[in-house]
Each structure stands twice: as structure tokens, then as C-alpha cells.
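Sample 3 of the quickstart, ligand S-adenosylmethionine:
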Amino acid sequence: MKITTISIFPEYFSPLELSLIGKARSQSLIDFKSINLRDFTTDNHHSVDDTPYGGGAGMVMMAEPWGLAIDSILEKDSEIDLIILTPAGAKFNQKKAEKLSGAKHLVFACGRYEGIDTRVGDYYRGVSGVRVHEISIGDYVVNGGEVAALVIIEAVTRLIPGVIGNPASLDEESHNEVGALEYPTFTKPAIWREINVPEVLLSGNHGQIQKWRQEEAKRRSELGQ
Ligand code: SAM
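Result:
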């Protein structure tokens, strides 16, 4: 899978050199590129923002640098999923992560200030080969789209075959079905600060363990914990 981020802070994505994603990149399972939006500006100050039409506080990211940056990607790859990060977008979840894990090239538009001129999404919705997704990572506001892109990249790429060492660990995870949570997990020692691991997990009875896990998963899911 190809992943390209467009941002005024391309260095924000250095964590993607670490851990499983770093390894997947070195194995060419993921081809990651971080583009600096300011490289697509035309003035001496490399401006990317201007005052909002209609007035109000803050600055809005101008459409043209975004247009030039996205066009530069489309020159090399005419089929992309363009993800515009915005708190006003559709809420991200595991289902969406699964859908996006089948994409060939994800392009993340990471806003700053008061966000990106709305016409950017409107324009690319009309460009053939581009699927536009406006996505929110939750009902709160962060300072920029970079951290939201990192969340989505991590949730999506761990579903690509080969990224997680043991694919079985994906089978019973939380949110595989809407609202379903995984059972509680424990490791050694069996007693930690006077708290015991549930007896059944030490029994070696796989049938009982499976039953206990299913019941606990159901209980947790109903509580929404
Ligand atoms: N004024 C905007 C609003 O009220 O909807 C918030 C702008 S926010 C300070 C700057 C950027 O951070 C956004 O353009 C977006 O890219 C990103 N962002 C903030 N919260 C987000 C969220 N919950 N999900 C996705 N992106 C978010």
C-alpha cells in the first residue's frame, strides 16, 4: 500500500519509522511519503492560509496549495483515496479501517488553523479516480490533522497481511463487530499486588476458558467498557 501525507509539519510522521510500521516499510509492504504543503506555495513567505470569508477568528488553509499538492500525486497515480481530516467528517471506526486497508494509495490531507477551504473536497469529489473521505477521529478537536492521520494509518496498516507477525491476534480483537469488546487479558505472575488471575485461566481447561472469555467479552461489550 502507498501512503502519502500532505502537511505543513512533514516531520510529524517520524513515528512511522518505528515498530511494526517501520518494519513493514523496510519490507516494502508500505511505501510511505510525507509531502510538505509549503512546497506548493508560490509566494516568498510560503503562505498556506488566509482570513476567512465572512469574517471570524482564525485563518483558513487556502485551496490552491492543496490543489497543487494533490495534483502532483495524481500525475503519478490516478487512483487515490483522499482522506481529508476534519472534526466535521464521518466518525472513524474499525469497519472504515477494514475498508481502507484494501486501498492502493491513501492520501491524507492534514489541516491546521481553522481547517482547509471546503472547495478542496468538493473539487476532488468530481475528479475521476479520486475517492474523497472526510473523516473525524472523534468528537473532540485537536490542533492538526497529523495526529488524526497517524491514528488512521496505524489502524489501517495493521490489517494489511504481513504487518502483524501473528495474524491470529487480529481475530478476537475489540471492535471486529460493532460494539464488541475483547475479553480481559492477564499474564504472569498469577498474583500481582494481591490480585489473582481468574482461577479458570489457570485450569488448563480450554473449553471452560473459551466459555469464560465469551461471557466476559459479552459482559464488557454490554457495559461498553
Ligand atoms: N475549526 C475547525 C472546526 O471547528 O471544525 C477545527 C480546526 S482544527 C483546530 C485544525 C485541523 O485539525 C483540522 O482541519 C483537522 O485537519 C484536524 N482535526 C482536528 N480535530 C480533528 C478530529 N476530531 N478529527 C480529524 N481531524 C481533526
